[in-house]
Amino acid sequence: MEIVKLNLKRRTYNIIIGSNILGRLGKEICKLKLGDTAYIITNALIKNKYAGKLTKALKRSGIDVIYKTVPDSEQSKSIKISTQVIIDIARYDKKRRIFIIAFGGGVIGDLSGFIASIYKRGIPYIQIPTTLLAQVDSSIGGKTAVDLIEGKNLVGAFYQPRLVLSDVRLLNTLSKRQVLSGLAEVIKYGIIKDRQLFTYLERNYQDILDLEPGALEHIVARCSLIKANIVEQDEKEEKEIRTILNFGHTIGHAIEAASSYKKHTHGEGIALGMLAAVDISRRLNLINQSISQRIEKLIKLVGLPIRIRKLPLKGIINAHYHDKKFIGKKNRFVLLEDIGKTKIVVNIPSKIIREAILRIGE
Amino acid sequence: MEIVKLNLKRRTYNIIIGSNILGRLGKEICKLKLGDTAYIITNALIKNKYAGKLTKALKRSGIDVIYKTVPDSEQSKSIKISTQVIIDIARYDKKRRIFIIAFGGGVIGDLSGFIASIYKRGIPYIQIPTTLLAQVDSSIGGKTAVDLIEGKNLVGAFYQPRLVLSDVRLLNTLSKRQVLSGLAEVIKYGIIKDRQLFTYLERNYQDILDLEPGALEHIVARCSLIKANIVEQDEKEEKEIRTILNFGHTIGHAIEAASSYKKHTHGEGIALGMLAAVDISRRLNLINQSISQRIEKLIKLVGLPIRIRKLPLKGIINAHYHDKKFIGKKNRFVLLEDIGKTKIVVNIPSKIIREAILRIGE
């Protein structure tokens, strides 16, 4: 078991990573004095699989539990569902001290964190992420949000959890595609910040795909530490520090958006987006071909896509230019100078961006 | 003109108080680099009266304006209206850098601040309060919220504005009842923190009722300073410092709630609530009768109620025990030791509370 501390003065919290550690939860919550009743936001699938264990872990410490299931899809990240859940919480909250547990993947985490941030101007919440993607990324750092038809994550808050508990045993029932979706972000951490992690992945990717607990614990802890360090320095993405987490996401998001988030998982979009960013870095002579080949090789080895069939070039370019981060500004990319070393570059000629996108077409 | 600075490190902002100072606005906004387009949330009444002046002040500095009117009632403090406004903002926000101006009283301020806090995880907003109550209280300190049927202000955030501009000239068109509603809070500041202000009110209340700009500027500046000092020390009401602002509000809110917020203005409820708190203080021998008489005299002199006809005793006591601040806890009152000096007391015998409420009945 490993503990990563995310230091934010009065809002400091621990990220606990281990295998089969759900049993610790009650004790941790009591230490933090979060309340007497856990309002657990989850979906039916996760509830069926793990509610027994979770309830037991909480009841043993005298904590009451209330489960609230929401649909298992991005549709749950809406103001409508947030409102329904908040009204439900208000009803229970008459004679209890309620705190929220986000028990699920990124959708559950984003929704629950947002609800916790606005109910009574903020009540405590903890994250128990159940996907690799959520364990290495979305559960850490306090970015919460729901979607509008006008755009994803347009409504939200920066609101830190009081605890993140990443039990890699919960990843056992993930599909291969879900594991790969998280693994793309793990590769990203290696590329932007951690050469050693990158090498570890080259050597041990098969253990991760086999869901070997030791390997999972190692990468989740490593990624948690990197993300915690970045969030500590730039909690609200006001400096250019948190920006580097967007490596591969500029074109990655555009790829996801061009297919209305239906064809590619987040990880697949990011894998392709990273390859485009790597290609731009090479075209600008920031890196040489051996580095770009090494990255492409790892992405391919683990089983993530390196090419898109029937590339929707126009759609991707359009989505890219409508990205909310670039409106009215120069384009801005996180690029590479080496594995483990990034550089932010603005105003890249659109010809180069176009060529890099074309290259990930078949 | 006076400027009060509210120090909160990176979130420090100015409260500018003066008469006929709307013209300064454009320059102040440019200094703060808030954006190129002001999205002004207001109601039809205020828009009709003052939009011309405001638009001119902004256009002169090259700032575009968009007006959004919401109904002039507490009904506007809802998730539904928030969502409608946010979707509207998202539509305009494609090629602009939008910031929000809350142009109205407490309802507009609370709603606008909440919207600003959650749109894109927070965009800048400024407060231009148009009632005395909003100028001395709600526009300062970053408490934003909307209501649920289950309770007022149940959904919200702590989110500071970037500027508060209190132009006392905007108070010219207030009804006497609206002025009195704000004046109750002004009296509260005197009672809890500022003996000099209390004496000033005893001597000059008529100037205030006559809306004499010098007198208004004096009290708004004084109250702004007191509130700023308190918020600086306890932004999120986590210590017992910000609590003292609730003097008179415990029973005051219960009085408002008992009549479903229809019979009494906020100020009338607070005036009566303060008298009840003063009475409890006297019964506990924290103050002598000369102090309680002096306070009652001022409240009566300005024209605020000191008694309720047909006291809904049961309703008030019920509402008091369902106050969200007391659920599952001991009762807790801000009481007085002197004019300008408070003391927080817990666990007051319900008999004493009951007698104090009975006393404000006729």
Characterization of the model:
The structure is a homodimer of 362-residue chains. Helices cover 48% and strands 19% of the residues of chain A. The first copy, chain A, is an alpha/beta fold. Chain A has two domains: 171 residues, 3-Layer(aba) Sandwich (Rossmann fold); 147 residues, Dehydroquinate synthase-like - alpha domain (Dehydroquinate synthase-like, alpha domain, Up-down Bundle). In chain A, the strands form three sheets. A seven-stranded mixed sheet of chain A has the order 1-2-9-6-5-3-4, sandwiched between helices. In chain A, a hairpin with a 2-residue loop joins strand 10 and strand 11. Chain A is globular, with a radius of gyration of 20 Å. Chain A starts with a strand and ends with a helix. At the A-B interface, helix 3, helix 4, strand 7 and strand 8 of A face helix 3, helix 4, strand 7 and strand 8 of B.
